[in-house]
Design brief:
alpha/beta; seven-stranded parallel beta sheet; two-stranded antiparallel ribbon; 16 helices; 48% helix; globular; binds coproporphyrinogen III
């Protein structure tokens, strides 16, 4: 795939190279806050039927780009396709979030898990990526992604979303080596999966460690960060003469930022619990930063949104190395007009930081 990239702000900012303005995209930019998404999902019947059909996944990926001048597309899929490919049986209960038919809670189940054959089990994802790249025709880069082994394991062991993580925490404290075997196997699957995404055309990668912040400080290194590092070491980092930047995002990981900055990623995702000025001071020149507007700001009126965008831009300050984003995914009840106001504000205000 040699199509020229017309807008490479995202890739440049992730590598802390000069840009004319701060690039912007938003986590969950394709999704339920868009009426055209809700319509297509209703037609398709379910979220998984969108994900597993490359033409529909491509269409959904492009929906937010038709509305907003975003600087990146992100593959429309889910982090839980990897455990699904490992045989756990993913399904979505309407209004309840994800569920697994066969959670893995003991050594026997964990040791019996296969490392999936990405080329066959997750072919629908790599086919979607090839199609999206073709449709994008170099308009903006395409981000591929995966969950971190720890975050995937929380769903694999709990069998669903959890507030207290009781099963996986019991496993972590009672039989840490068994949990490490699960994390290691999952890390191998994730490495192969992300590399397959790069081979299919993903131009940047993001690893979501949504539940890393639920771990105790020493457990974070042992059960999350170590496996993220292992994955990043195994990734293809250059393709068609361009570096493939990697973003690592631990939600709730602000306390450990210095430690996380050494994981090998080019950039860190930052949630809204710390200021980007503090984050920047703490990571120095080691990594770029992506974030971190509180997603709830988008419930407020456009003038407030503009002022909050101004604050986030000012907190990062002058120079490259900032990708504007929310601190977590956009909420389903946000009016699309408010998203537009946020993106316009980034476009209008950020050139001053790159003079
Ligand atoms: O950012 C994007 O636009 C790309 C698409 C994307 C989805 N999920 C689509 C989705 C990405 C990057 C994800 C990642 C994901 N999935 C994470 C990590 C990032 C995060 O947000 O913390 C996690 C933990 C999941 C697991 C998952 N998938 C949950 C907990 C849910 C239910 C959440 C909810 O809000 O109901 C999903 C379903 C899901 N994944 C939806 C979308 C658009 C909603 C599906 C629907 O009802 O249409």
């Amino acid at each position: 795939m040699s199509s020229e990239l017309h807008n490479d702000r995202l890739l440049r900012a992730l590598l802390r190279e000069p840009v004319d303005r701060t690039p912007v995209w938003i986590m969950r930019q394709a999704g339920r806050y868009l009426p055209e998404y809700r319509e297509l999902r209703a037609q398709a019947g379910s979220f998984m039927s969108l994900c597993s059909n490359p033409a529909l996944a491509c269409e959904v990926t492009l929906q937010p780009l038709r509305r907003f001048p975003l600087d990146a597309a992100i593959l429309f899929s889910d982090i839980l396709t990897v455990p699904d490919a490992m045989g756990l049986g993913l399904y979505f209960e309407p209004g309840e979030g994800p569920r697994f038919e066969r959670p893995v809670r003991d050594a026997a189940a964990i040791d019996a898990l296969p490392v999936p054959d990405i080329g066959s089990e997750l072919r629908y994802v790599t086919d979607a990526i090839s199609l999206i790249r073709r449709e994008l025709a170099g308009q903006v880069p395409l981000i591929g992604f995966s969950g971190s082994p720890w975050t995937l394991a929380t769903y694999m062991v709990e069998g669903a979303s959890s507030k207290d993580f009781r099963h996986i925490k019991a496993l972590a404290y009672d039989q840490p080596e068994v949990l490490e075997r699960l994390l290691n196997k999952t890390a191998q699957a994730v490495t192969a999966y992300l590399n397959a995404q790069v081979e299919a055309g993903a131009q940047a990668l993001m690893i979501f460690d949504t539940w890393g912040g639920a771990l105790a400080h020493d457990a974070y290194e042992r059960f999350s960060l170590r496996f993220a590092r292992q994955i990043i070491e195994g990734l293809i980092r250059e393709r068609d003469g361009r570096r493939i930047p990697v973003v690592f995002f631990t939600k709730g990981g602000g306390l450990w930022l210095e430690q996380i900055a050494g994981c090998g990623a080019d950039a860190l995702g930052v949630d809204w619990t710390l200021s980007l000025s503090e984050a920047r001071r703490r990571v120095g020149d080691q990594v770029a930063l992506q974030g971190n507007l509180d997603p709830s700001v988008l419930y407020a009126s456009p003038p407030v949104i503009q002022a909050e965008v101004a604050r986030v831009l000012a907190e990062f300050g002058h120079g490259s190395g900032h990708v504007f984003n929310l601190g977590h995914g956009v909420h389903p009840q946000i009016p699309p007009d408010h998203v537009a106001a946020m993106i316009e504000a980034v476009q209008a205000q950020s050139p001053a930081y790159h003079e």
